[in-house]
């Protein structure tokens, strides 16, 4: 979750992601009820996972609120890891999101977050440094086992530098 | 949650809403973790509530996933009560939603769902009866204590008649 590559950077990114997973579970009780875990993290994406059982709805498939929560957190975590790696001390908030529920989810699921088309971390870091505030759009999906997406989220986040 | 008015209809609507609350808690485990309850129901709106404590985020205010979940369920419940009152046996799914997070929520909160502007239950019931499928747009808000909204959701739901 930084601009450098190589095995050291990968190990650092994995450690930072594991620490973020512990923070999320400690600070957001609903994520403990969901059984959230961090699966994978690299310089461009963050993947969170949740088991089906604690996240079912009345039909026995994944509850829309659980899909929305996991996708929103994946986007938030992607940005949090990037600002932490740059040692930018910020609060990050979701501003708005559009979610599409495309197919029911009948098994354990993951949410994968990446920056939306045309978005760049460098512009965002520059805005935080210059003006104390940066915005980023993120695209998340809950992939289906055999290709395609069960759900997608487009969300806008704002980071406010702590004074 | 039907087309008739008067004290009998109000009592029936309140009983149906209480039964729906029990069903939601029994069928969707995450709503038990959220501490969801049904607050009020009339022919045009459904209000759900949740306490802040189990729904906090890393900043100590309400987690976006909890706001999204409560608003989505309020919309879903509004439609479920209406189809149940008409004895239309349907599965109801959320198809898509747009959520705006306008202000942090620092206390227990409610979500109020109503039909979106221009939407009518009669058209929806007619479509289910004629074609086995109906769509409805719902507008939900999480009101702030002193007016305005902390969050809003516009969502589209589809009801599929069980065969």
Widest beta sheet: strand line-up of chain A: 1-2-4-5-6-3
Largest sheet of chain A: 6 strands, antiparallel
Q: pLDDT average of chain A, as an integer?
A: 92
Strand residue percentage of chain A: 25-35%
Structural class of chain A: alpha+beta
The topology string of helices and strands of chain A comes to HHEEHEEHEE
| Greatest chain-chain contact | A-B, 35 and 36 residues
* SS element count, helices of chain A: 4
Overall spatial form of chain A: globular
* Assembly category: homodimer
- Regions of chain A with pLDDT < 50 over 5+ consecutive residues? none
Estimate the helix proportion of chain A, in percent: 25-40%
Please give the radius of gyration of chain A in angstroms: 16 Å
End-to-end distance of chain A, in Å?
24 Å
Q: How many β-strand stretches of chain A?
A: 6
What does this molecule look like?
The structure is a homodimer of 163-residue chains. Chain A has 163 residues and is of the alpha+beta class. Chain A is built from 4 helices and 6 strands, in the order H-H-E-E-H-E-E-H-E-E. Chain A has helices spanning 7-27, 29-34, 64-85, 121-131, and strands spanning 37-41, 45-50, 90-101, 109-115, 133-143, 149-161. The first copy, chain A, has a 6-stranded antiparallel sheet. Chain A is globular and about 50 Å long. The model of chain A has no long low-confidence stretch (mean pLDDT 92). Chain A binds chain B through residues 23-24, 27-30, 33-34, 53-59, 63-66, 68-70, 72-73, 91, 93-101, 104, and chain B through 23-24, 27-30, 33-34, 53-59, 63-66, 68-70, 72-73, 76, 91, 93-101, 104.
């Amino acid at each position: 979750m930084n601009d450098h590559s190589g095995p050291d950077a990968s190990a650092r990114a994995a450690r930072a992601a594991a620490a973020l997973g512990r923070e999320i579970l400690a600070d957001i009780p609903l994520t403990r009820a969901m059984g959230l875990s961090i699966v994978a993290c690299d310089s461009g994406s963050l993947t969170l996972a949740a088991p089906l059982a604690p996240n079912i709805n009345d039909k026995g498939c994944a509850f829309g609120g659980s899909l929305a929560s996991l996708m929103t957190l994946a986007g938030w975590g992607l940005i949090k890891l990037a600002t932490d790696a740059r040692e930018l001390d910020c609060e990050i908030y979701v501003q708005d999101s559009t979610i599409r529920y495309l197919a029911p989810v009948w098994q354990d699921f993951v949410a994968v977050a990446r920056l939306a088309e045309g978005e760049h971390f460098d512009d965002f870091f520059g805005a935080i440094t210059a003006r104390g505030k940066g915005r980023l759009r993120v695209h998340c999906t809950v992939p289906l086992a055999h290709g395609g997406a069960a759900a997608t989220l487009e969300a806008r986040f704002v980071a406010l530098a702590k004074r």
